[in-house]
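Can you give me the bound-state structure? Components:
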Amino acid sequence: MNINEQLDNYYRDGYIVLEDLIDPDRLDAVRESYEETIDAALILGRAERDEITQAMKGHRFQNPHHPALARGALMEGIGMPDLIEFAGHICEGDPAMLGIAAFAMEEGYEYVPDWHRDSYAAWGKDSPEELRVRHMERMPATQVMLALEDDHSFWFVPGSHNRANTELEEARFEEGRTGWQELFEGAVQVKVRAGSAVPFDARGIHRGLKRAGLRRRSLFIVYGTPEEARYSTISGWAEEAEYADKIYLNTLPDGFRSAVEKTIAALK
Ligand SMILES: O=C(O)CCC(=O)C(=O)O
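Here's the bound-state model for the whole set.
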């Protein structure tokens, strides 16, 4: 599929699978680097430890690109030129990197969050900020799931990203019938190979779901225009002085560095 077909599918469905974005030859190095990042996050208190097991509490931590955490191979994986190029198309040629959530779930961990729209989760359903984006045909922001191991946990309702709820969906959100046991009509399970990425419009109805038995090593990287960076609830890192350090910025791959700098500039 060429880039125009990828974009057409993305705008129609609200997501697209970009297969094997990370070269299989580099995948082991990226994974190793991710494990080192997790260890460093725990040691530095940037990921919380469970008091009893001493392992990572919950399953996630924010911003593995922090200067104290950023590891070369992982940054290279996150900053793959094809991915930045795709984000650039979505973000009017001006992609800012709004934030990253690093998900690291062990086999025994059950991850069963509710169905949601991130626009509800971030700003509140029917808030002015949520209404600002609800009917945008093409929102200039995208969230990218980057799978470092095979990932079967992401579910999405195609076409739900730029429309209001159907009557049935509205009733579910109003009545709280959004638990993982519910199946939203038309929802698809997005199964991807390690090294693939799934850009999605996070206004769409989606959920993650991981029952015990599989590990998960995926990252969620959010890109948007500098204007979206100012509305974002996850871009606060860019106001911390250490991210503006030139020596640190010089270690990042070019396109990713530029996207980090745009967010820093947007929040000044
Ligand atoms: O875990 C997933 O696959 C989905 C993550 C998610 O729902 C979110 O980041 O809003």
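A couple of observations. The two ends are 39 Å apart (CA to CA). Residues 118, 145, 153-154, 202, 206-208, 220 surround 2-oxoglutaric acid (CB under 6 Å).
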